[in-house]
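Reading a protein record of the kind used here takes only a little practice. The record below shows the convention in full.

——
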Amino acid sequence: MGLLEIAISQKRDFAAIHFSGDTNPKKLKVHYFLKEEPYSIEKVLECVEYFDGGGTFFEAPLKRAQDIITEHKKFTTADLIFVTDGGIFCLTFKPKICILTHDELLDNKRN
């Protein structure tokens, strides 16, 4: 909720991607909070209380974030923050996150 409050104070859109052990990015639950659309406390609670059964697979939510950033203009200057209680199961994740830049996200959309 703290990150959502920061987004609200900065008049920014917010998307929470809930991740688990699922490897399919399109199956991950996403809660959108758009600055031009009012939302209720019930929607906030639904977001913070959502649980998808556990597991920690980072590549699927990273891909989903990449898709959201490239498909929705309002997220082209997005900050990407992972909050987890698990370790990284994919050895290739760290190098990918270090080299994934805004230009690369846009290049992936063009390809």
